[in-house]
Design brief:
The protein has about 525 residues and is of the alpha/beta class. It has helices at about 55-60, 65-75, 80-90, 110-125, 150-165, 180-185, 200-215, 245-255, 290-305, 320-325, 330-335, 355-365, 375-385, 450, 470-475, and strands spanning about 10, 15, 35-40, 60-65, 95-105, 135-140, 170-175, 190, 220-230, 260-265, 280-285, 335-340, 370-375, 390-395, 410-420, 425-430, 435-440, 460-465, 480-485.
């Protein structure tokens, strides 16, 4: 039997192998059900020139075997929710075997060698078990890998081929997943978040785990319908608790109260994926009632299509936003203003090295107290040679994304330097500007990313964040006014400004079509 403690990482063979010698005890094959589980999460920006590598996963989460259990308990997200479902619904008859937890910040495509190694870790974990009764995967749904389309579909398909048609496979996805036919065919249960900004990671793992366990114990017979939509963008900001999506998510919850309905999911897709099956999806799972599943999935798709013309909120240029923030004196006294860097949103997979806002601050807002992050490995290492208190002049940003971005000079005094999960990290102060310079990109999803560096958000006039949604509730304590800053960049929220090569056409809003069903997606 295979050990559940895997810590050795041997890239010389492009595989992960267990490094612990202790074997598992034999299981009661007459009664105990064995469920293997893993988490492999990454959200791609297909237009980013930066590969996501092992280093990026190590900076976030990369754990094996029993380490996964410890991490899950600490993190309290999907895997913790799944394990809670095992405890509640397993009735003492379920034994779980953790394989791997691998997560990274959003970014360019994953290095294919690393992806292959992670996939083999999962497949070998299944292959080496004498008995497998179910598999749970926590996935993002918008993963990208160099040289291939739909890596999550590839992983699920390989698992299905390995275990055969009778072993249930369940996967949970981020709400921005790009669902494919290959995933539909390989999995029995696909479940998505019900919130955006995402707040139900634990609940999603719990809901998915509950369905899988009840299936393994022969308590339910899940049947699933997946709708692919000819819809790429629509519905304004796509916030679950604000119109127009509020009605959609409330309807989904009402649907799930029906006895036969097991799950309803809606996926307003991550638009920065250049793949042949890109588009919104709806999924409904019922207990043996295919007709009802189709009815539920169609209803949600129709609601999403009906609000496709609701526009995005207007944005501001950096210069406009600085001028408006300057006028918000009371807001700045009682908290801070937040600049959402819409066009360099690291949370969508951009490099995080845009200089447009920094340039505007230098020219128009250096008297205001501002915090802004910038990823630049070269400049960070150059500045690292100096000590706290030293003044440095650097050429920063614009070294990765040269199509939309420019390198600019920046001078300031180093007021802090330390090793963080983002690599070498420094704060370089120029008048009121606090530039947080790091080797790896920072999305600023949590206020703690600034607080841990000694920066008080109460003292800031402007805080620049590089994520589109999480800050909107995590910064509520401090944020008195949000400005959406639009500049040239790789996370353009207008699909017409993205250089797609592989997406299906026609698709709204790039093309004029009359129905989300129009010209069913060819070949999928």
């Amino acid at each position: 039997m295979r050990s559940t403690c895997i810590t050795g990482l041997l890239f010389s063979t492009i595989l992960f192998f267990p490094s612990c010698s202790q074997k598992q005890e034999p299981v009661d094959t007459d009664d105990t059900k064995i469920i293997l589980y893993a988490e492999f999460m990454h959200e791609v920006n297909s237009f980013s020139p930066v590969l996501t590598t092992e280093r990026d996963f190590k900076a976030d989460h990369l754990f094996f075997g029993d380490e996964v259990v410890t991490s899950a308990a600490e993190e309290k997200k999907q895997l913790a929710g799944f394990l809670k479902a095992v405890k509640k619904h397993g009735k003492g008859r379920i034994r779980t075997i953790p394989l791997v937890q691998a997560k990274s910040m959003s970014g360019g495509p994953i290095d294919s060698t690393f992806y292959s190694a992670m996939k083999e870790t999962i497949l070998s974990g299944v292959r080496e078990q004498e008995k497998v009764d179910g598999i749970y995967l926590s996935l993002h749904g918008a993963m990208g890998v160099e040289g291939m389309f739909d890596p999550e579909g590839d992983l699920l398909q390989e698992l299905r081929a390995l275990v055969g048609e009778d072993i249930p496979i369940a996967a949970s996805f981020d709400l921005h997943a790009s669902i494919t036919r290959r995933r539909e065919q390989a999995a029995d249960i696909l479940v998505g978040y019900h919130t955006n900004p995402h707040r139900d990671h634990f609940d999603t793992g719990y809901r998915t785990g509950s369905l899988l366990i009840r299936t393994v114990l022969d308590e339910i017979d899940p049947v699933m319908t997946v709708n692919k939509m000819r819809l790429l963008k629509g519905g304004g900001m796509n916030i679950d608790f604000l119109p127009p999506f509020r009605k959609i998510f409330r309807t989904m919850k009402k649907m799930e109260r029906k006895d036969e309905v097991l799950s309803v999911s809606f996926f307003p897709v991550h638009i920065w994926i250049d793949e042949p099956e890109l588009g919104y999806s709806t999924i409904a799972i019922t207990n043996g009632n295919q007709e009802l599943a189709q009815e539920m999935a169609d209803s949600i798709a129709a609601m999403a299509w009906a609000v496709r013309d609701v526009p995005q909120p207007e944005g501001n240029s950096p210069e406009e936003a600085i001028g408006l923030a300057r006028k918000k004196k009371l807001a700045r006294m009682l908290g801070t203003t937040v600049f959402c860097d819409v066009s360099d949103a690291v949370g969508t997979g951009t490099p995080g090295e845009s200089t447009w806002i920094l340039k505007a601050l230098l020219e128009h807002g250096s008297d205001l107290t501002s915090y802004i992050t910038l990823r630049d490995e070269q400049a960070t290492r150059e500045a690292w040679k100096n000590e706290v208190g030293d003044e440095v002049t650097l050429m920063v940003g614009g070294k990765i994304d040269t199509a939309y971005n420019k390198t600019i000079p920046y001078s300031g005094v180093i007021i802090r330097k330390e090793e963080t999960s983002f690599g070498k990290t420094l704060i370089i102060k120029h008048d009121g500007i606090h530039l947080v310079l790091s080797e790896l990109p920072m999305a600023s999803r949590y206020p703690s990313e600034f607080r841990d560096l000694g920066l008080s958000l109460w003292k800031a006039d402007i805080v620049v964040v590089k994520n589109l949604f999480p800050f909107r509730y995590r910064y509520l304590l401090y944020n008195r006014k949000t400005f959406n800053i639009k500049t040239p960049g790789l996370s353009n929220i207008d699909p017409s400004g993205l250089k797609y090569e592989h997406i299906p056409r026609p698709i709204y809003p790039l093309d004029t079509i009359d129905s989300w069903r129009a010209n069913e997606l060819t070949g999928i």
